[in-house]
């Protein structure tokens, strides 16, 4: 067993050696987005909150992760795809004057296996209607081929009817970041929605250079935040000698790293160039840390328990969800239904949740 572990480590290190080096810089025909530190600190809390497995607390926005910079957020719909272990929500942040969409990433108990799979993953899906563009099939399917996408689209339309034509902010961490990127592109291309912003944390690569260039033109207001030696943004590996065929990040990256010593350590937020593969940002270090993947801006990312796809929910809230034959469901909070509002308020007052 030990020999097998050492062999795996040697192969992984070899892949990083092959993927190291400078990448080419794509030609830009768009303005790079401006990085907003305050917005990043807010959206990272939404990306953390979506991991909560107690759906009562999440739906009523009373969870421990729902009481910081996101306080006052109004949930519209909570989408849970039990079949594929996916979770997302749509709501309105009045302080941002925006509809916020957040996607859950990979759960902690399965992240090691997920990372191992990404080392070997090859581009295997042609992106529709874009010549030579290829994407990661798993990430693409997680958004496009599950109950998540129709739930998100329906929720956004509901939010617009209630609050008007607000800007849309899409966020997520890890695999949730990959889904957020596909969502931002989908809303813009297929539904003609304007003013879509995407900000992800610890996102893996999701497509090749052709896709990266296309994405950057369609959703230019996109920021990818990476942290120190977080290994996930290094995956799937980028191979310098095959720039057109390998995975390639889209811009714009903001790399968080620490400088100083002892009590004088502070965080630098380096705004990277427009290549998507700036060799002076996260690519300047080895991506060898899972711990750096699980905390951004001091906010804990990942699930609050180790049970895969565990669901906690007050039984009374099941009356306000629609469920399909596979057990996937969407919970909707209707402002116009006083019965729903009363029951939700009763749950907020302290009724405990049950495991489903």
Characterization of this structure:
The chain has nine helices and 16 strands. Helix content is 30%, strand content 21%. The strands form four sheets. The chain has a ten-stranded mixed β-sheet, sandwiched between helices. A two-stranded antiparallel sheet has the order 4-5. This is Fungal lipase-type domain-containing protein.
CATH architecture: 3-Layer(aba) Sandwich
Instruction: Indicate the mean pLDDT.
Output: 85
Major β-sheet strand ordering: 10-9-8-7-6-3-2-1-15-14
Question: Which CATH first-tier class would you pick?
Answer: Alpha Beta
Gyration radius, to the nearest Å?
20 Å
- Total count of domains: 1
Cα shape: globular
- Fraction in helix: 25-40%
The termini sit apart by: 37 Å
**Largest sheet: number of strands, sense, barrel closure:** 10 strands, mixed
Helix-and-strand structural type? alpha/beta
CATH topology: the name is: Rossmann fold
- Assign the CATH superfamily: Alpha/Beta hydrolase fold, catalytic domain
Give the amount of beta strand, in percent.
15-25%
How many β strands by DSSP? 16
Task: Note poorly predicted spans.
Answer: 1-27, 335-344, 349-356
User: How many helices in DSSP terms?
Assistant: 9
GO molecular function, one term: hydrolase activity
Domain Fungal lipase-type: 100-238
Signal peptide: 1-21
Pfam families: Lipase_3
């Amino acid at each position: 067993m030990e020999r097998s572990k050492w062999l795996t480590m040697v192969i992984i290190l070899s892949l990083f050696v092959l993927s190291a080096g400078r990448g080419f810089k794509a030609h830009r025909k768009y303005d790079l987005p401006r990085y907003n530190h305050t917005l990043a600190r807010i959206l990272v809390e939404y990306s953390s909150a979506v991991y909560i497995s107690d759906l009562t607390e999440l739906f009523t926005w009373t969870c421990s992760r729902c009481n910081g910079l996101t306080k006052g957020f109004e949930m519209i719909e909570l989408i849970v795809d039990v079949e594929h272990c996916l979770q997302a929500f749509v709501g309105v942040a009045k302080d941002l004057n925006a509809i916020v969409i957040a996607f859950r990433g990979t759960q902690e108990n399965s992240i090691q296996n997920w990372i191992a799979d990404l080392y070997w993953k090859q581009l295997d899906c042609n992106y529709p209607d874009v010549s030579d563009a290829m994407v990661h099939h798993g990430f693409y399917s997680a958004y496009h081929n599950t109950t998540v996408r129709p739930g998100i689209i329906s929720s956004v339309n509901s939010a617009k009817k209630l609050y008007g034509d607000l800007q849309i902010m899409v966020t997520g961490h890890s695999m949730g970041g990959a889904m957020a990127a596909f969502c931002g592109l989908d809303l813009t291309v297929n539904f003609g929605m304007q003013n879509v912003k995407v900000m992800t944390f610890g996102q893996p690569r999701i497509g090749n250079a052709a896709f990266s260039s296309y994405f950057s033109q369609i959703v230019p207001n996109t920021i990818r935040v990476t942290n120190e030696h977080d290994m996930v943004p290094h995956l799937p590996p980028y191979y310098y000698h095959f720039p057109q065929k390998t995975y390639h990040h889209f811009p714009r990256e903001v790399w968080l790293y620490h400088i100083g010593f002892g009590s004088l350590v502070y965080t630098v937020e380096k705004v990277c160039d427009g290549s998507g593969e700036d060799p002076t940002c996260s690519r300047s270090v080895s991506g060898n840390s899972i711990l750096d993947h699980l905390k951004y801006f001091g906010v804990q990312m990942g699930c609050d328990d180790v049970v895969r796809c565990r669901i906690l929910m007050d039984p009374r809230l099941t009356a306000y969800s629609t469920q399909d034959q596979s057990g996937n469901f969407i919970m909707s909070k209707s402002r116009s239904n006083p019965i729903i509002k009363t029951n939700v308020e009763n749950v907020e007052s302290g009724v405990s949740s049950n495991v489903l």
